TrEMBL record:
Its main location: mitochondrion. It holds the Pfam family CIA30. SUPFAM superfamilies: Galactose-binding domain-like (SSF49785). This is NADH:ubiquinone oxidoreductase intermediate-associated protein 30 domain-containing protein. It comes from the Eukaryota. Residues 5-97, 119-173 form the NADH:ubiquinone oxidoreductase intermediate-associated protein domain. Belongs to the CIA30 family. Keywords: Chaperone, Mitochondrion. It comes from Aegilops tauschii subsp. strangulata. GO terms for cellular component: mitochondrion. The keyword Mitochondrion applies. It is found in: Mitochondrion. InterPro entries: Galactose-bd-like_sf, NADH-UbQ_OxRdtase-assoc_prot30, NDUFAF1. GO terms for biological process: mitochondrial electron transport, NADH to ubiquinone; mitochondrial respiratory chain complex I assembly.
Length: 182
């Protein structure tokens, strides 16, 4: 039996309120992020992020933030590395075998197994991004300088057959771990 340790849920909306005090240019995005770690988490001894999730048929975004070494000096933003995770509706998922499906500039971690499997994302499958867009550069993540992690959701995009658009969403998170796949 699985117990839920965390829930990421809400209603994804494309509405933009006229006269809002927020300078919103687009909508349809929601995320949750860890606090910035005190120091770094060193994942250099690991090659994979594993997650035990129960989803709603949407594609979620897993982000790892590393110390800023790509951007201009003096810039405060951390570097972000993203992988897209499709979580079918229903049962807890713990993926043992992954397949990577390239779709445009994105990599989706996806498996068609109908029951329980751990979702594993190799660290080298995370793509460098800037404000949600993939950076077209030959770069490698520095796994010894992880400063935070997040899970998020965008109303647009996803693997073929995934639920998209506005509406309710829910992702149950039992655990997230770093591991060696070898």
């Amino acid at each position: 039996m699985c117990t839920r340790e965390g829930v990421f849920s809400g209603n994804l909306s494309l509405d933009m309120s006229e006269g809002s005090p927020w300078r919103i240019r687009r909508s349809g995005f929601c995320g949750m992020r860890s606090k910035k770690f005190d120091g770094y988490i060193d994942l250099d001894s690991y090659d994979t992020i594993a997650m035990k999730l129960r989803g709603d048929g949407r594609t979620y975004i897993s982000t790892i933030y590393t110390e800023n070494w790509v951007n201009s000096p003096g810039q405060e933003e951390d570097n972000s590395w993203q992988a897209f995770v499709y979580v079918p509706h229903g049962s807890w998922r713990i993926l043992k075998v992954i397949s990577l499906v390239a779709t445009g500039n994105y990599v989706f971690v996806h498996d068609k197994t109908p029951l329980c499997f751990p979702i594993q994302i190799p660290l080298d499958s995370y793509l460098p991004t800037w404000k949600g867009n993939v950076i077209e550069a030959n770069m490698e993540m520095n796994p010894s300088r992880v400063v935070g992690m997040s899970l998020s959701l965008n109303a647009e995009g996803g693997v073929p057959g995934a639920k998209t658009g506005p509406g309710d969403f829910r992702l149950d998170v039992d655990w997230i771990k770093a591991m060696r796949s070898l």
